[in-house]
Amino acid sequence: MVRLKREMVIFAILFLFLSIAMHFSAWVDHPLAQFEGLKSSPLGIWHPLLITFLVYIVIFLLRLLVQLIKKMIH
Q: Over 90: is that where the pLDDT of 16 sits?
């Protein structure tokens, strides 16, 4: 359960980081319009979660690879 919470926190932080990094000026100028604009987004309403999930999977696999290498070395 602790690991699940930690992974959810990592996902949430990644979500916030990616959303702010990709649309910084829009978040500063008109943050509520960002949420309203999801309905008409060409990438679809779920694209922020999908992109975050894909980046999370890549990071997760890299972390897994590093752990595997550490176990092999020791």
A: yes
